[in-house]
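Please, structure for the following, as tokens.
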Amino acid sequence: MNLLLLFILGSIWGTSFLFIKIVVGEVPPMALVAGRLGLASLAMWAFLRMRGVPFPRERRLWGIFAVTGLLNGALPFTLISWGEQYIPSGLAALLQSTTPIFTIILAHFLTHDDRFTAKKVLGIVLGFVGVGLLMWPELRGGLRASVWGQLAIVGSSISYALATIFARQRLHGQLPLVSAAGQFTMGFVYILPLSLLIERPFAISPSWTAIASWSTLALLGTVIAYGIYYVLLQRTNATFTTTVTYIVPINGLLLGALILREPLHPELFISLALILSGVLLVRTRQTQNGSPGN
């Protein structure tokens, strides 16, 4: 049963890149994220209220949510959505799987209990070789939009890594769904005014396909996915649950090819093997407040 849930979670997060690609063709990136975070937050708080979980009121806790809401919600979601305007959804899924590699790099410099080892350094090198192989053909043509799109996805991985390190001790002992609801609420608070000010999305009229993808992204890719993620953490352990990192890019690549007719080049599979090998080598115990989701 746990293995089935793991594959369901990987499939859901893999489809998120597909849904983002569909929506961002009709909706500006920040508006997409605002809608996603707003709907997800409402659904999470409603669920917690039905379960009788009290609304958190500590000022310190909301200060933590303010940071994680930026680093684990508003910023990476926006970078992924913006980047997918210019690159295929499968490529975005593959690049985003580098999060554990950036986590171990940043943890070495920002913490005292997670240091480099020879195995981790080898994993980091393999991961960067995989990313370099993906980006090199575009880099040879100069800093085009597709290069910036790829860099945006890499930036989202760095943001997720920072969020994981920040939340590792500060949210220890908190009910995970409360932490998720709190950070997504704060992410919505950040991104909504920016979208209204910069994008002015008042005149958008997305198709029913985009609206359905948008809603599914919020409810399935955010609320239900995080619910499954935390159930798995409670039933198994963090090491087992974070193996979802290996499922997401494979699903993202296949769905992009099957549904959006995105091309699959041999370099993609070579990079996939290099990046996932690197992730395997650097993977360490993750906390239940950091996730490899998107």
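Residues 2-282 form one domain. The chain has one domain: 2-282.
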